Amino acid sequence: MPTKVLISVKTYPTISTKYKELVCTAGFLENGDWVRIYPLPFRALEQDQKYKKWQWVELDLKPNTADNRPESYKAENIDSLKVIEQLGTEQNWFKRKKIVNKSVIYDDLTALITKAKAKKNSLSLATFKPTRILDLIVEEVDREWNAEKLAILQAKSQQLSLYQTEDEVKQEFELVDKLPYKFSYKFEDINGKESTLMIADWEIGSLYWNCLKKCVGDEKKAVQQVKDKYLGFVDKCDILIFLGTTQQFHGWANNPFIIIGVFYPKIEPQHNLF
């Protein structure tokens, strides 16, 4: 029976020598529980299957036994994926908030990390409410994809499938541009604990490229525009951040979480009943 998932997370693509280009997708079930769908080769999907954030989709899922994170599933049959409905931002994201607020919302990062390291009933996806956003940190990173991984993928792309033309294989191998910067929120939790976590969301990557285009290639201006937008949320929005552990660091790292999504409806005015 197909599972209904509200897509709330799409990470910026990475490459894997096993799965080619990958997007980590996660979302909410109708009861507010988190689920991760990985691997899911987004750019290999049919056009009418290419889901957007905040769309309900249906697909056949089964536990991903190669992934030790409890919320991880994989598509049993990619052809089963069907986009159903888009939840918009009307009434200050009312429909989206209705689902998000069903999830457990954490405010203590230390307690959350403890849950991620638990041997039983561990946790690898969470909705988190920071007490304060302090800054958006920007760091330069490598501008090109890992050469060794690219070489392996290039070799794989040359092994033509019996059902693909050379042009089709080349198109499948095309990669998105690698981001030359890493963006991270610096924030405090309810106990005043400061943390700096990378934002791996597709949204911030797309924003950077759009800003760069508008700034006619001026990276300094583009980066500043990204900072202005993400710090602009602080005073105007009721920010939640979606956290996820990476498979590599789940269960043992001091802090295995990264930010995989930012949820930013406007702050609701408090009406004085008296």
> What is the SS-derived class?
alpha+beta
Poorly predicted residue ranges: 158-164, 168-173
Helix proportion of residues, in percent? Answer: 25-40%
**What gross morphology would you assign?**
globular
Mean residue pLDDT:
84
Alpha carbon gyration radius: 19 Å
The major beta sheet can be summarized as: 7 strands, mixed
Count of DSSP-assigned helices = 6
Count every beta strand, where a strand is a DSSP E run of 2 or more residues.
Answer: 16
Terminal Cα separation, in Å? Answer: 51 Å
User: SSE string, helix = H, strand = E?
Assistant: EEEEEEEEEHEHEEHHEEHHEE
- Spatial arrangement of strands, main beta sheet: 7-8-5-4-1-6-9
Walk me through what this model shows.
- The chain has 274 residues and is of the alpha+beta class.
- It folds into three domains: 3-100, OB fold (Dihydrolipoamide Acetyltransferase, E2P), CATH 2.40.50; 105-143 and 178-263, OB fold (Dihydrolipoamide Acetyltransferase, E2P); 144-176, no CATH class.
- Helices cover 26% and strands 29% of the residues.
- The protein is built from six helices and 16 strands.
- The chain has helices at residues 90-100, 109-117, 147-157, 166-173, 202-214, 219-236; strands spanning 3-10, 14-16, 20-22, 25-28, 34-37, 55-59, 61-63, 72-75, 82-86, 105-106, 125-128, 132-140, 181-188, 194-198, 240-245, 257-263.
- The strands form four sheets. Strands 7-8-5-4-1-6-9 form a seven-stranded mixed sheet, with no helix packed on it. A four-stranded mixed sheet has the order 10-11-15-16. The protein has a three-stranded antiparallel sheet with strand order 12-13-14, covered by helices on one side.
- Strand 7 (61-63) and strand 8 (72-75) form a beta hairpin.
- Helix 5 (202-214) packs across helix 6 (219-236).
- It is globular, with a radius of gyration of 19 Å.
- Mean pLDDT is 84; it is low at 158-164 and 168-173.
